[in-house]
């Protein structure tokens, strides 16, 4: 009686590697799907702000913007959103208590905002109440041609 592995053994050397590649591709696809689903579910707890809403708020003294881009996303660019601050060790470490009554907007380089969402959740858990993640992050802001400045 033949099972799945018996069928694979009849495929020969090239057939087995094709099955392994297909299996690996399927597993990777499942992990990516689960990861994207988790990111969207995760973001449900964090208020989002659109690029247009943020642009309208520029210049507001109660607004604090954090550039939370990681690694090459940050260092490959010489500009940032106008008036954005750069946390030295991630947003979790540098948001002082005097910002607790400010409107905090965090943006990152990824379109799914995973880094920003994690940091926003941390701030919300610490009692900050006006924390938002920029929907679409740096990419959407830059594509729109909205105000930037040199770092």
Describe the structure.
With 151 residues, the protein is of the alpha/beta class. The protein folds into 2 domains: 4-43; 48-150, 3-Layer(aba) Sandwich (Oxidized Rhodanese, domain 1), CATH 3.40.250. Helices cover 49% and strands 15% of the residues. It has 7 helices and 6 strands; from the N terminus they run ααβαβαβαβαβαβ. The strands form 2 sheets. A 4-stranded parallel sheet has the order 1-5-4-2. Strands 3-6 form a two-stranded antiparallel sheet.
C-alpha-based Rg, rounded: 22 Å
CATH topology description of the largest domain: Oxidized Rhodanese, domain 1
Major sheet size, sense and barrel closure: 4 strands, parallel
Q: Give, in spatial order, the strands making up the sheet with the most strands.
A: 1-5-4-2
Provide a count of the helices. Answer: 7
Number of strands: 6
User: Per the principal axes of the C-alpha atoms, what is the gross shape?
Assistant: globular
What do we call the CATH homologous superfamily of the largest domain? Rhodanese-like domain
* CATH architectural arrangement of the largest domain: 3-Layer(aba) Sandwich
């Amino acid at each position: 009686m033949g099972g799945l592995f018996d069928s694979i053994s009849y495929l020969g050397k090239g057939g087995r590697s094709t099955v392994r590649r297909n299996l690996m591709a399927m597993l990777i696809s499942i992990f990516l799907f689960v990861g994207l689903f988790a990111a969207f579910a995760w973001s449900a707890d964090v208020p989002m702000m659109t690029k247009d809403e943020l642009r309208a708020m520029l210049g507001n003294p109660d607004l604090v913007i954090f550039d939370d881009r990681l690694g090459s996303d940050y260092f490959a660019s010489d500009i940032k959103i106008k008036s954005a601050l750069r946390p030295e060790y991630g947003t979790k470490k540098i948001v002082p208590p005097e910002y607790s009554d400010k409107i905090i907007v965090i943006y990152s380089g990824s379109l799914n905002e995973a880094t920003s969402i994690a940091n926003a959740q941390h701030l919300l858990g610490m009692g900050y109440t006006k924390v938002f993640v920029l929907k679409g992050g740096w990419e959407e802001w830059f594509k729109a041609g909205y105000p930037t400045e040199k770092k």
